Amino acid sequence: MTNRVPFLIAILTLIGGVFISVLFGANEELFKNKIIEGLKKNEKINLIQDPAEKAEMLKSEEEKNWRYYQRFHFHSTGIGAMVMGVLLFVSFLSAPEKLKITTSYLVAIGGFLYPYIWLFAAIYGPELGRGVAKEKFAILGYMGGVFLIGLFMSLYMASKYPLKTIKPV
After folding, report:
1. 147 vs 29, 55, 82, 138, CA distance in Å?
2. Rounded to the nearest 10 degrees, how much is the dihedral formed by the CA atoms of 41, 47, 53, 54?
3. Which residue in 30, 38, 151, 162 could disulfide with 127, CB within 3.0 to 4.6 Å?
4. Is the pTM higher than 0.70?
């Protein structure tokens, strides 16, 4: 496979996941404070009259929104590693080049875009509400389906085409 772009996309996916973990390590409070500020603007939470219930809801929502930032990290690094492995495997198959390239792009693009639903849900979820934020960026969630289609195409190629034989030097 001569097309390097899917590999570059896979590396960008890994960089995104690792970069945000570096940011967590450098200043986790920045993220948590952003969540708290967003929750203060959340209309649904502001309608709660009982102070104890409101405090409980704020704590629960803060934890859940923080978890979304973590999910972006976990999904970017995990899926990025899977994408890299699939791309390497596909590159060794003796399948037609167009099929390999199509599969590679589906896996790489789907794997790259899917984790961003969690990042954008984390950024906008506190103020809008987690459900609304996920719905707003649902197209990114659907990219997980694009990734899955690429995986199924990889499975098809693996069952139909043998690995290339590597001649010793």
Report:
1. 33, 39, 10, 15
2. 20
3. 38
4. yes
Residue 6 structure tokens:
């899917």
pLDDT per residue rounded down to tens, the chain (169 residues): 458 999 999 999 999 999 999 999 999 999 999 999 999 999 999 899 999 999 999 999 999 999 999 999 999 999 999 999 999 999 999 999 999 999 999 999 999 999 999 999 999 999 999 999 999 999 999 999 999 999 999 999 999 999 988 778 7
Cα(63)–Cα(67) distance, integer angstroms: 6
Report residue 47 CA to chain centroid gap.
33
Residue-wise burial string across 58-70, b where 16 or more C-beta atoms lie within 10 A, e elsewhere: beebbeebbebbe
Quote the CA–CA distance of 85 and 103 in Å, as a whole number.
Answer: 13
Q: Per this entry, what is the length of the chain? A: 169
Q: At 93, list the tokens.
A: 């198959």
